[in-house]
Amino acid sequence: MFSASVVGSSSPARPVVFVMIGAAAAAVVAAVILAAVSLWSPVHALSAPFAPSEASGHIEDAASLADAELPAIALLDPALLSAMRDAATAAGADGVAFEVTSGWRSRAYQQWLLDDAIVEYGSEEIARQFVATPDRSRHVTGHAIDIGGLDAQSWLIQHGAQWGICQIYANERWHFELATEPGGVCPDLLPDAGG
């Protein structure tokens, strides 16, 4: 059993045993409290995994260019948004509707997309063919927009230059930017987002 004696004492030192047990219990309680505080601290909250949200530019379902309450639309470059709205009106006369699948994005959202692509493709080099870094992405500055629907994409590729709107990447038929003067000629396509 547990018995300890204090040197020079003839009686068992039961208080020493209780002090040792008490100190061990206090250490365990302190460790639990410290762990709980660190898990719920603001520092931990800031290091939590990113989750795309409307505020970061995520569009849950395709949006309209008229959805000005969405940050992905509202934070687009005004010249790009105006050109896209004018092109959408002309496309509508041809029976084609634009669906915005992505517009402005926060830096954190862009980084999350890149990180996700790295996991998906197993390589940063391959991922960067489809997703630019936050420093290079024109979505982060509001100068790029992604349009869904093959009919809308084809229409915009054929007619977008009338408003200065051009497809930029050969591997992304959905990605458009202002890249020429209205009525001008679009530049040659870049092979991918990596340049």
What is the CA-based Rg, rounded?
A: 30 Å
The main pleated sheet reads as: 4 strands, antiparallel
Task: Report the helical percentage.
Answer: 40-55%
Gross geometry: elongated
What ranges have pLDDT less than 50 throughout 5 or more consecutive residues?
2-6, 34-47
Strand arrangement, largest sheet? 1-2-4-3
- Mean pLDDT score: 86
Query: Based on helices, strands and strand pairing, what is the structural class?
Result: alpha+beta
E-strand count: 4
What would you note in describing this structure?
The protein is an alpha+beta fold. Helices cover 41% and strands 10% of the residues. The protein has 7 helices and 4 strands. The protein has helices at 14-39, 42-46, 71-74, 78-93, 107-121, 124-127, 150-159; strands at residues 99-102, 145-148, 165-169, 172-178. The protein has a 4-stranded antiparallel beta sheet with strand order 1-2-4-3. Residues 2-6 and 34-47 have low confidence and may be disordered.
What are the key terms here?
195 residues; alpha+beta; 4 strands; elongated
Put the structure in a nutshell.
By secondary structure, the chain is α+β, with helices and mostly antiparallel strands.
Topology:
Elements: H1 14-39, H2 42-46, H3 71-74, H4 78-93, E1 99-102, H5 107-121, H6 124-127, E2 145-148, H7 150-159, E3 165-169, E4 172-178
Antiparallel strand pairs: 1-2, 2-4, 3-4
